[in-house]
Structure formats: structure tokens, C-alpha cells
Specification:
Blueprint: H1 3-18, E1 41-50, E2 57-64, E3 69-76, E4 92-97, E5 103-107, H2 115-120, E6 131-137, E7 140-148, E8 154-162, E9 170-180, E10 187-193, E11 201-208, E12 224-229, E13 235-239, H3 247-252, E14 263-269, E15 272-280, E16 286-295
Antiparallel strand pairs: 1-8, 1-10, 2-7, 2-9, 3-6, 3-8, 4-5, 4-7, 9-16, 10-15, 11-14, 11-16, 12-13, 12-15
């Protein structure tokens, strides 16, 4: 299968799985001085075939600001089958870790612990075996991990919802890491960007692979390719080697990847839903990291 066909197929499944129905318009690239006040991340998600060991799906994020932030974290597996996703994880577990790596919350079946809180937010999963947890987090860095019960594997969707948008805090520096394979088993990251005060969002999206090996991650992807799509699935921008894109803007924001083969996209985006897809160049595989930075 041609890589473009692979990406199209994966993008179709992601849109069906997340069920994003958000309108928005594309804007040209611009400098920070030209734009209105920024919005915030309202929802972040990642979809991947999660395995075992180092090949589980990992999503990191930062709660920035003086206030705490109330969120819901979900790991969906069984309910994905209704949207045509094959090989869905039969029984996912979600864990939330703080910056030290300690587990601060976890859930297997969402009705077992916080059923009323999840339902009250209108975010109840469709299958009892899916996972969800509600938690209020102090400012800091956190990691959500989705894996299968008893070492099982399969496609899983890991989501983080901001359900306290009035708090003086926001979700930033979002990332997802996992083993990127072929076919439908690509690394797919999604984000819903808000439009506080009618503004737009300055975003840098990155796909890292080679530099992961320097921090001890085995089987790192050697040449990732990144695509950014809007909520209609239309390609907004793509990049193979980051220096071939908007090099100056990426560097000025302190987000230049350490390896020239890694990918990065600088964009000014209106409110809406966006999807980043990471695939290995020339059908290569390996562990990759996709990141969304919503800049101030």
C-alpha cells in the first residue's frame, strides 16, 4: 500500500473513533505580532496499536498556570469497533503518573470507580470495559499510559478532556509516544483547539524519532514524516526534515529538534479539531514521539 493511502485510511479511522464535529477556517502562516489572543487545548487524544513493555501508548501533558485543572482521561478500546477500527484493544487500562513517575490514579472498567462523575460530564464510554478517570491536577507535568489487561495488545484511543475551562490554567506541551508500524498502526495525535476571546492558536507540531535513541529509547524511528490535517481530513501541511519548513519560527520558539531528520510544522490555527499523523519514511517503523505545543 502506498504511504499516502496508508495515511488516508488511518485518518479516516481516527475521525470515526474520536467523532469530532467542529467547524473552522484555515489561516495563513503569521508571526506572533500579527495575531489575536490565543485559545487553549480543550481535548487531546492519541491513537495507536498499544503493545507491551516500551511499546505501550504514552501521552504526556503539562498543566500550566496558577490554578489546578479538572480533567477526564479515557482509554477506549472495545467501543472503537463500532466505528470500523479493526484489532481494537479488548480491555484497556489507563494510568496517570505525576512528574516523578508515580501512579496517582488508574482505572480498568470505567463504571467501577467514578461512574457518576464521568456520566455527569457527558463522557461516558460506550463499553463497560473502556476506562475513564476524573481528577483535579495541580500545575505540573503528567503522563497518561494506556495498555491492555494481562499483557494484551490492540488499537486504543487515549483521550484527555479539559472539563474546567474557567480555571486559570491550561493544557500545554502535549505529546504521545509509541511504536509506529505500517497499515492502520500509525501514530495519530488529535487536538481540539479553543478560541478564547475570539483568538487563534500559534502551534508547533513535531515528530521525533532519531533523538529518542540518545535518551535510551530502543527501536527509535530513524526518519519520521509528519502530516497535519484539519477536522475535514484536509491536509494543512506536511514535513519530512524540519529545516525544510518554517525553520526560523521553530527555532525562535526554542523548539528546534536536535536531529535534522526529525519533522516539525509551525502553524497559526483557528479554533477547531486537528490531527497529526506520524509515519516512517519509505515504510520504516520504530518508536516515535508526536507533540503539540500551543504557544503564548
Amino acid at each position: 500500500m502506498h504511504p499516502r493511502d496508508v495515511m488516508h485510511r488511518a485518518r479516516f479511522h481516527l475521525k470515526a473513533a474520536i467523532v469530532l464535529v467542529v467547524a473552522g477556517l484555515l489561516l495563513r502562516f503569521a508571526s506572533a505580532q500579527e495575531i489575536k489572543p490565543f485559545g487553549q487545548l480543550l481535548n487531546i487524544s492519541a491513537r495507536l496499536h498499544t503493545g507491551t513493555g516500551d511499546n505501550v501508548l504514552i501521552c504526556g501533558f503539562v498543566v500550566a498556570g496558577p490554578d489546578s485543572k479538572k480533567i477526564i482521561v479515557r482509554a477506549l478500546g472495545p467501543s472503537l469497533a463500532a466505528y470500523g477500527v479493526s484489532g481494537a484493544l479488548a480491555d484497556p487500562i489507563v494510568e496517570l503518573h505525576d512528574h516523578t513517575g508515580a501512579i496517582i490514579a488508574s482505572n480498568n472498567n470505567w463504571k467501577d470507580t467514578q461512574q457518576s462523575q464521568v456520566a455527569a460530564a457527558n463522557l461516558a464510554p460506550n463499553d463497560d470495559r473502556d476506562s475513564a478517570l476524573v481528577i483535579t491536577l495541580a500545575p505540573g507535568a503528567y503522563t497518561a499510559i494506556a495498555h491492555g489487561v494481562s499483557g494484551t495488545s490492540g488499537v486504543v484511543l487515549l483521550e484527555i478532556y479539559d472539563i474546567d475551562q474557567g480555571a486559570n490554567a491550561r493544557l500545554t506541551n502535549v505529546s504521545a509516544r509509541g511504536f509506529v508500524d505500517l497499515g492502520d498502526n500509525l501514530l495519530i495525535g488529535g487536538a481540539i483547539l479553543g478560541g478564547g476571546n475570539g483568538g487563534v492558536n500559534v502551534v508547533v507540531t513535531r515528530a521525533l524519532g532519531p533523538s529518542l535513541g540518545s535518551v535510551g529509547i530502543p527501536n527509535a524511528m530513524q526518519d519520521p514524516v509528519l502530516e497535519l490535517h484539519n477536522q475535514q481530513g484536509t491536509l494543512f501541511n506536511s514535513n519530512d526534515n524540519w529545516k525544510d519548513g518554517n525553520r526560523q519560527a521553530i527555532t525562535d520558539n526554542g523548539l528546534a529538534p536536535s536531529d535534522d531528520r526529525e519533522a516539525a510544522i509551525f502553524a497559526v490555527l483557528p479554533p477547531g479539531a486537528y490531527t497529526a499523523i506520524v509515519v516512517g519514511k519509505n515504510d520504516t517503523t520504530g518508536v516515535a514521539l508526536v507533540e503539540f505545543y500551543n504557544l503564548r
